[in-house]
Amino acid sequence: MTAVLFDFSGTLCRVESTESWLRATLTATGMTMEEPQLLQAAAALEKAGALPGGAEPSTVPEELAGTWAGRDLDAASHRAAFTGLSLQVPLPEETLHDALYDRHMTPAAWTPYPDAAHVLGELRQRGIAVGVVSNIGWDLRPVFREHGLDAYVDAYVLSYEHGVRKPDPRLFAAACAELGVEPERTVMVGDSRVADGGAAVLGCRVHFVEHLPAHERPDALLAVLDLLPDAELPSV
After folding, report:
1. Which CATH number fits the domain that encloses residue 9?
2. Would the keyword Hydrolase be found if you checked this record's keyword annotation (predicted)?
3. What is the spatial distance between Cα 105 and Cα 126, in angstroms, rounded to a whole number?
């Protein structure tokens, strides 16, 4: 193998909880909610699927169906889809819905999995090319820079910049082309069998991890090193 492609959300990094997301946004905007109402709103936002990278929506309102289907194809659709879901939940001020969306794009909203830096660093030492392939509607590069992961990434291939989303093999093909590697010598690592599994169409090997909170998945990425020639499982 000469390259490893990684998904972002649920694979290398995990977004904060919906409650933390709401609390941080209230603090940043100087707004307050009584504790029972805050907890109720957080639960409703989670059920609505309003936090990108969080829980899937229990249902998508009919009026948002088209926007939701194209949410990862451009930045405007991504914001419209998720703020549309958020707007299903009453909040003290309507401006909070946009503020919530803005919050999720900040590095503070994301936590790298405990073994992410170690595995990415090991791949760099071994001369293995690394790409990030994500269905997303915003630029995640600042998240990687803030958390010290950017130095290990050779290419970012983001759906909204290419107008195509996983599992479409064209997104994985674009990543392989940018890295100058052959799909047959590439591993795709992700948490979605549907989206990330699309890489297999090109001939990539696919390895899955579970989409869990960061503290519940301390070392799942280490298995990636076992897929490489002469790999030794290091300690962290």
Report:
1. 3.40.50.1000
2. yes
3. 31
Structure tokens at 98: 């946009």
Domains held by the chain: number: 2
Whether residue 60 sits in one domain with residue 9: no
CA angle 113, 161, 89 (to 5 degrees): 65
Residues 114 and 217 in one domain: yes
Question: What are the residues whose beta carbons fall under 8 Å from the beta carbon of 152, sequence distance 6 or more?
Answer: 117, 120, 121, 123, 124, 130
Looking at residue 236, its pLDDT comes to 41
User: What are residue 188's phi and psi, to 5 degrees?
Assistant: -105, 125
pLDDT of 235: 42
Q: Are residues 62 and 127 in the same domain?
A: no
Of the candidates 49, 73, 108, which is a domain's last residue?
Answer: 108
pLDDT of 233: 41
> Which residues of the chain fall short of a pLDDT of 70?
230-236
Domain of 53, in residue numbers: 16-108
| 65 HSE (CA, 13 A, CB side) | 4
**CA-CA distance, 169 to 200, in Å (whole number)?**
8
Give burial (CB, 10 Å; 0-12/13-18/19+) of 173: middle
In this prediction the pTM is 0.94
